[in-house]
User: What shape does this take?
Amino acid sequence: MDIHENRAAHKWTRRELAGRVLWAACRPLFRWSPRLCWGWRRFLLRLFGAEVAPHVHIHPSAVVFIPWNLRIGECSSVGFGALLYNLGQLTIGEKVTISQRAHLCGGTHDFRDEAMPLIKAPVTIGDGVWICADAYVGPGITVGQRSVVGARAVVTKDVPRGAVVAGNPARVVGAR
Assistant: This one.
């Protein structure tokens, strides 16, 4: 594995790096805001380029890595300790619940290449989806409308519309 080549690779533009530094500096304003200050957190995310609908609730302990890669629809919520590792575009539909400590992961490395280049993959969560506690949704995944990803499930393949998935790896266990 060529670690030196990986570390020398330019993964971010100067503008992206500057944005990440500014977001890191403002992150305490998000994290330490009172729980009921939903509007304040929406404002901060929008200030950094996120598209956040007016009635979205994001818990202050949720972690959004790159706000400008986030789109979240009306009446959706992101729970306590949720990790939105959105190196690629993260699209969350309307009336979606992302439960506590769920992990939506939009980044990985190409292990087939010795330099292990960074992959910034999109993640799409359809309308009416429930991502249950501690679930993991991997890079490049689409979770179809009205689906449920069970607690602690590990999603490595697209989830069909209306499916209930559970387990590691996640498998369809029912329909909604």
